[in-house]
């Protein structure tokens, strides 16, 4: 059992390291943008366009990427892995070309109906190019994950974001270009990944399109379209509604604070990268339920620990002066600090939602995804309407938190009837209670002294191990993983 957890942990660390770097490097653009673009409206426009790109990525892939994972790993699907690769890739390239052509042609009209982007048709045209290139590389990157070629995967991802970052610095910092440089830099980086992955694609693709397989993949993947859109609505609608109910400046400030949630999102995404291939290969394993149970307990401890450390030290993090040159957030954006702990907490429950997904994949009842995520998105919209008008951007942050909590809880209560997993709820509850108690002390006494902050973090670990909620032996697994990777 411990060997299986080690295996998952090893892959989580490998993909996690790559994802940390791929998120950290572009994350550095946040202090760069917020220090260079003194106008919060300019930063708000950049955020709005990339928000729309993230939303359209779901439409461009229409669940084929999720179906690829399932059928590529399914040993008795009746189709070879090569057939799965060919069918998925051909489908996405063909439709991606059509979508991008239409968006490019009607860019001005599209910009006129998007909140805050009227008159920015050029940026929409840039977005259409980025979307096509990202769609082209989607299946090749998933192929690398499924083949456990983590070093190649990491290298491409890191090179992509590095090129994006350097291009931004050169075009904006040196040539003094405006916000359009943010999109041009992304196109340059996407073209790099496109050309790097062409050999892999050509090696595996024969354009041997299987209509029978495609229909099966669409049947499995179509619910992910609606689910993905709902997730995007849940993740991004708050920023758009802030634009509507407040102004672009507030939206820009909130977006800058929201981006600091990356610290938790990195952990969740790294886990997801390793978790999906891992549990898909445990479909018929009788020991899988007990294994999944222990994984959630360790996951809970890691997430709550990260939440506490980041929440307690977030003020020190965002105001840290890097050699007198810049701070993590420009001073005009420091008012975003209160939203950060709420967003960090939201990602804990996103992680739980991901943990609860194996029964859906095993039983192929993917139709439940739109119901779960759709209801969470509707709840998010309703809460945003109510809370933004009363509390401003902090209201939007709490809307996200409650919606992710709802999504995780609803998933658990639905899927446990299909595939029972004996989760260690007493241990998990103890971890959350310990974290909640320390969080209460921090905010109630408004702790500012760094030494006292460190003592609060130590108190959490003392409570968890002192009351034997977790044992040191369980966590030594993680230390062994790290040792094995060095």
Q: Can you put this structure into words, describing what you see?
A:
With about 475 residues, the chain is mainly α. It has one domain (about 1-425). The protein contains 21 helices and 2 strands. The chain has helices at about 1-25, 30-35, 40-60, 65-75, 80-105, 105-115, 120-135, 140-145, 150-175, 180-205, 210-245, 250-260, 260-280, 290-320, 340-355, 360-365, 370-390, 395-415, 425-445, 450-465, 470-485, and strands at about 320, 325. The chain has a two-stranded antiparallel sheet with strand order 1-2. Helix 15 (about 340-355) runs parallel beside helix 18 (about 395-415). The protein starts with a helix and ends with a helix. The relative contact order is 0.12. Residues about 475-485 have low confidence and may be disordered.
């Amino acid at each position: 059992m411990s060997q299986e957890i080690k295996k998952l942990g090893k892959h989580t660390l490998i993909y996690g390291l790559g994802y940390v770097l791929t998120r950290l490097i572009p994350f550095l653009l946040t202090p760069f943008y917020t220090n260079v673009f003194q106008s919060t409206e300019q930063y708000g426009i950049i955020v709005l366009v990339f928000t729309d790109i993230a939303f359209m990525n779901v439409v461009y892939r229409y669940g084929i990427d999720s179906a690829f994972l399932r059928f590529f790993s399914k040993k008795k699907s009746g189709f070879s892995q090569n057939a799965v690769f060919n069918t998925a890739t051909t489908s996405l390239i063909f439709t991606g070309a059509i979508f991008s052509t239409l968006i490019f042609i009607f860019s001005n009209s599209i910009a006129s109906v998007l909140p805050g982007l009227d008159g920015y048709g050029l940026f929409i045209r840039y977005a259409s190019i980025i979307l096509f290139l990202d769609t082209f590389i989607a299946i090749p990157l998933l192929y690398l994950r499924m083949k456990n070629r983590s070093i190649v995967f990491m290298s491409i991802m890191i090179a992509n974001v590095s090129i994006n970052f350097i291009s931004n610095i050169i075009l904006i910092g040196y040539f003094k270009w405006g916000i359009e440089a943010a999109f041009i830099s992304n196109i340059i980086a996407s073209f790099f990944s496109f050309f790097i992955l062409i050999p892999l694609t050509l090696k595996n693709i024969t354009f041997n399109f299987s209509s029978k397989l495609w229909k099966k993949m669409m049947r499995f993947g179509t619910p992910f379209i609606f689910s993905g859109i709902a997730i995007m609505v849940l993740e991004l609608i708050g920023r758009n509604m802030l634009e509507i109910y407040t102004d672009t400046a507030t939206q820009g400030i909130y977006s800058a604070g929201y981006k600091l949630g990356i610290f938790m999102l990195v952990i969740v995404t790294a886990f997801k990268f390793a978790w999906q291939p891992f549990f898909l290969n445990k479909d018929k394993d009788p020991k899988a339920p007990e294994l999944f149970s222990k994984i959630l307990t360790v996951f809970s401890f890691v997430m709550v620990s990260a939440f506490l450390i980041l929440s307690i030290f977030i003020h020190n993090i965002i105001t840290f002066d890097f050699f007198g040159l810049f701070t993590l957030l420009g001073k005009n954006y420091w008012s975003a600090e209160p939203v950060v702990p709420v967003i960090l907490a939201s990602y804990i429950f996103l992680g739980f939602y991901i943990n609860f997904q194996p029964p859906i994949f095993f039983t192929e009842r993917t139709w439940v995804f739109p119901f779960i995520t759709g209801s969470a998105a509707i709840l998010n919209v309703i809460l945003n309407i109510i809370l933004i008008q009363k509390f401003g951007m902090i209201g939007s942050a709490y809307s996200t938190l409650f919606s992710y909590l709802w999504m995780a809880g609803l998933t658990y209560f639905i899927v446990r009837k299909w595939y029972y997993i004996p989760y260690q709820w007493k241990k998990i509850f103890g971890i959350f209670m310990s974290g909640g108690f320390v969080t209460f002390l921090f905010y109630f006494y408004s702790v500012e002294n760094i030494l006292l902050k460190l003592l609060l973090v130590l108190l959490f670990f003392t409570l968890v191990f002192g009351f034997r909620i977790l044992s040191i032996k369980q966590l030594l697994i993680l230390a062994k993983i790290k040792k094995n990777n060095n």
